[in-house]
Design brief:
The structure is a single chain. The chain is α+β, with helices and mostly antiparallel strands. It folds into 2 domains: 97 residues, no CATH class; 97 residues. It is 31% helix and 30% strand. It is built from 7 helices and 10 strands. Strands 2-3-4-5-1-6-10-9-8-7 form a 10-stranded antiparallel β-sheet. β8 and β9 form a beta hairpin. The longest helix is centred in the N-terminal third of the chain and has 16 residues. The chain is globular. The structure holds a DNA duplex.
Length: 224
DNA sequence: TTACTAGCATGTAGCCTGGC
DNA sequence: GCCAGGCTACATGCTAGTAA
């Protein structure tokens, strides 16, 4: 079997070369059956169950509102987790989540480890592809075309995070636009576009990168 | 043949309650 | 407050059947 991660990276890099852009993978998610994979995953390192009130678990649950999370396990100190899902057959399925592959404030999870996990699970369910820009995007242009929702924190504060929850583009489930510099305390201006893209069959890769680029191009237009 | 799915049985962990 | 017991939710082992 070929290397799934390299295949996707090659696909994206090829698109970047032909379109003068700089898309990158930020998050990989893989739904898997624990029944035959868990033993192999445990050989890769120590998985620790996150405590019920841990900050990381609460943060994960905020991001995973659709999936009925029961418990979450973390691979050592990496941003690599799997969480058990309640959907039937109960406790059989889990979702592997590999975060922070494109980061500025900390090292990403080791590529060799990601490759091993993907070759063990032999699948990939969806990925987040990101695109970073040094100035605030033109959100008004996007509002003209999409239903742009601003995220309001629990305290009722309007944040620098915006969602396009419905794109009408096949496989492109959602786009998040947020102030990356503020979020990670970077010390320089940086905004991030993040596209959640489902992958029905990784053997026949057809990522909607042209469509995502059209959206980032609109938002890169000069602010009026 | 191998990989995967699903049902049943059983083990484990966490929470709650009552007695001391 | 502490501990034991009971209950429930969570998790996994075993096995049989199915698909690739």
């Amino acid at each position: 079997m070929s290397d799934i991660l390299s295949d996707i990276e090659d696909f994206i890099n090829n698109f970047n070369s032909n379109n003068d852009t700089d898309f990158a993978i930020d998050t990989i998610r893989v739904k898997f059956s624990k029944q035959h994979k868990l033993d192999s995953l445990k050989e890769l390192g120590k998985w620790s169950k996150l405590k019920k009130n841990s900050n990381i678990l609460n943060k994960l649950k905020r991001r995973l509102n659709d999936d009925e999370v029961t418990s979450v396990y973390r691979l050592e100190t990496h941003d690599i987790y799997y969480y058990n899902m309640q959907e039937p057959p109960k406790y059989r399925n889990a979702m592997m989540v590999i975060f922070g592959i494109k980061q500025y404030h900390q090292a990403p999870p080791p590529k060799q480890l990601i490759t091993k996990i993907l070759s063990t699970l032999k699948n990939i369910s969806n990925i987040d592809i990101c695109f970073d820009v040094g100035i605030k995007p033109n959100l008004n242009k996007l509002k003209d075309i999409f239903d742009l929702t601003q995220y309001i924190s629990k305290d009722g504060i309007f944040t620098d995070t915006y969602y396009i929850n419905k794109t009408d583009i096949p496989m492109l489930k959602k786009i998040t636009i947020y102030n990356k510099a503020f979020k990670n305390n970077l010390g320089f201006d940086l905004w991030r576009f993040e596209a959640k893209i489902s992958i029905p069959n990784y053997r026949y890769l057809a990522l909607p990168l042209n469509e995502f680029k059209s959206i980032t191009d609109i938002a890169k237009a000069t602010n009026d």
